[in-house]
Each structure stands twice: as C-alpha cells, then as structure tokens.
Design a protein that fits this description.
heterodimer; A: 160 residues; 5-stranded antiparallel β-sheet; 4-stranded mixed β-sheet; 4 helices; 35% strand; B: 81 residues; alpha+beta; 22% helix
Chain lengths: 160, 81
C-alpha cells in the first residue's frame, strides 16, 4: 500500500502506513528508520488527560516539504515520509509518524532525527494539553524557517 | 482593500475568533495589521516578539506589503510533534 509521503489530518497513524508510503522501492535502499511520537500521560509535573492538536494545514504541508528538501540537501540519498495527526488524541495515541529510508542506516537514522527536530521548530502545529485541573496551550519555538541557528541545532542533534 | 486574518491556538482564544476580515489602506503590512489587532485585543501584545506570520500560506516577514484579498496568518510559538 502506498500513500502520500507527507500528510496532516485526523486519521490514526501507524508504522505500517508510514513505512508503506515509500512503495516497494527500486532495491537501492538498505535501511528504513521509523519514529512514532506518542501522547504521554505526564508533562511538566502535570497529569495529562488528553491533547488536542490544531494546525494551519496548508502551511504545515509546505513546512514538511521544506524539511524533506533540507534532508535531500544534507543527505542526498535519503527519502522522508512524515505524517502528523491533528484533533483530539488520547494517551498512547501516535501524534506523528516519520520514516526515513536510505541505502545505509547512518543516513536514515540522521534524517529521521533531523525531521522530528525540524517539525518541532517550524511546523505550524499546536497542542493544547488538558490535564487534571485545567488546560494550557503548549508554546515551544518561534517558527522561523530561516533561523540558521535552529537549523544548525537540528543538524547537530541528527548527527550526534 | 480587504484582507482575511487567521489566528491560531492561544491567539485565536484571545481574539475569540479564528478568522477576521479587516479593511486596510494600500501599503499596509503584516506588521501594521498586527499592531491594529494588538490595540483591539491588548493581550495579543504579549506575543509581539514570539509570533511568526504568513501570507497566503507561505511564511512572510512583518514588513511584507499586503494586497487586496490576501490571507494573513499569525502563528504563536509552535508545539507540533
């Protein structure tokens, strides 16, 4: 089964679907590294009940395309698949699924790590945390795709 | 001329709406639209230094001059993943 490489929507995510997004390939790749981000039941000392994700969807897809292009620049043999879920997510649900594929494992590991770091930096997606006693919008990075320091930090983590 | 303003996450909660229509004068920029909104909804001013902006679903800087019919989006710090 093949689907889009880059997508955002309310559908549940799973590893089989993200790894299957590449199709069967031409035999040149020897590695697929996958990552699933899950909704955790605790955050910053709070007991989390569930999360609600929202996104500026057309810009989110463009941000994913930008991340895929950055990966092609840095690891030319690697290919990225990235799906992000939005809407209400329960504890243990997957919010993001990433797969990176390449001829050798090193590039696939690096590209996969780079992708999750860049999503957290630049994708216009927000989570609202509903915890025991209240709710709060989580606010992380100021989204600036041209911020060279942030990009360099993602590269450093990817290659650590 | 008229632009559409899209607000997300906490910014939307502050303004009470995810989408607003605003009449602006020729030469208006993303920044001038933001300053008017921040006058209207003073709590938005807390985000002065941490927002990002986009026009027609592409990232754009605050000095970008707007055209009639543009969709301007203001984005608080992101938390995807």
């Amino acid at each position: 089964m093949t689907g889009p490489l880059l997508a955002i929507g309310p559908e549940p995510l799973d590893l089989q679907r993200i790894a299957g997004a590449f199709g069967s390939g031409d035999g040149r790749d020897g590695a697929v590294v996958t990552f699933l981000g899950l909704v955790r039941n605790h955050n910053a000392g709070r007991s989390v009940r569930y999360l609600e994700y929202e996104a500026y969807e057309p810009l989110a897809v463009k941000a994913f395309e930008r991340i895929a292009a950055e990966i092609r620049d840095h690891w030319p043999s690697a290919t990225l698949a990235l799906h992000h879920r939005i809407g209400r997510l329960e504890i243990g649900d997957a919010s993001i699924a990433i797969a990176a594929r390449s001829p050798h494992r090193g590039d696939a590991y690096a590209a996969c790590r780079y992708a999750i770091e860049r999503v957290k930096q630049i994708a216009p997606i927000w989570k609202r945390e509903f915890f025991e006693g209240g709710d709060i919008w989580i606010e992380g990075a100021t989204a600036d795709p041209d911020d060279a320091r942030a990009k360099a930090e993602a590269e450093r983590l990817a290659c650590a | 001329m008229r632009v559409t303003v899209k607000l997300f996450a906490r910014l939307r909660d502050i303004a009470g709406s995810s989408e607003l229509a605003r009449d602006v004068t020729p030469g208006a920029t993303i920044g001038s639209v933001w300053r008017e909104l921040a006058n209207e909804y003073p709590e938005l001013a807390n985000y002065e230094r941490s927002i990002s902006s986009a026009v027609n679903a592409d990232y754009a800087k605050m000095d970008r001059v707007l055209s009639d019919g543009d969709e301007v989006a203001f984005l608080p710090p992101v938390s995807g993943g």
